[in-house]
Amino acid sequence: MSDENKNSIMYLIAYLVPVLTGILVYIMYGNDNRMKFHGVQAILLGIAIFIIDIISYFGAFIFTTIIYI
Predict the structure, then answer these.
(1) pLDDT tens string for the chain (69 positions)?
(2) Inter-residue contact 30 to 55 (CB < 8 Å)
(3) pTM above 0.85?
(4) Environment class of 24 (CB within 10 Å of its CB; exposed 0-12, middle 13-18, buried 19+)
(5) Dihedral of the CA atoms 37, 38, 39, 45 (nearest 10)?
(6) Phi and psi dihedrals of 38, rounded to 5?
(7) For 26, how many CA atoms within 13 A lie in the half-sphere containing its CB?
(8) Distance between CA atoms of 7 and 30, rounded to whole angstroms?
(9) Which pLDDT score, from 0 to 100, does residue 27 have?
(10) What is the 3-class SS of the chain, one letter each residue?
(11) What are the CA-CA distances from residue 18 to residues 3, 5, 11, 51 (Å)?
């Protein structure tokens, strides 16, 4: 397997469980700028998904509470 294929697979692995695998890819391949970019991007994606999830949860809770009042 060529280095390009290995890197492509690692780019994909960074997004499997965004925060966890993003941190692992960032730490393990910190000397490769493109790999660091994908690691940081996966971390930020995981944080954004978490924030959106919390907002939507509380939004749905507030909305259903208002309807039943």
Answers:
(1) 666 677 788 788 878 888 888 899 899 987 889 889 999 999 999 999 999 999 988 888 787 777 776
(2) no
(3) no
(4) middle
(5) 110
(6) -65, -35
(7) 15
(8) 13
(9) 92
(10) CCHHHHHHHHHHHCCCCHHHHHHHHHHHCCCCHHHHHHHHHHHHHHHHHHHHHHHHHHHHHHHHHHHCC
(11) 23, 21, 11, 13
- Angle at 23 (CA atoms; ends 3, 29), nearest 5 degrees: 30
Give the integer Cα–Cα distance in Å for 13 and 53. 22
**Residue 45: is it exposed, middle or buried by C-beta count within 10 angstroms (0-12/13-18/19+)?**
middle
- Specify the residue for token string 């970019």: 37
The pair of three-digit structure tokens given for residue 48, joined into one six-digit string: 């954004």
For residue 30 the two structure tokens come to 């910190």
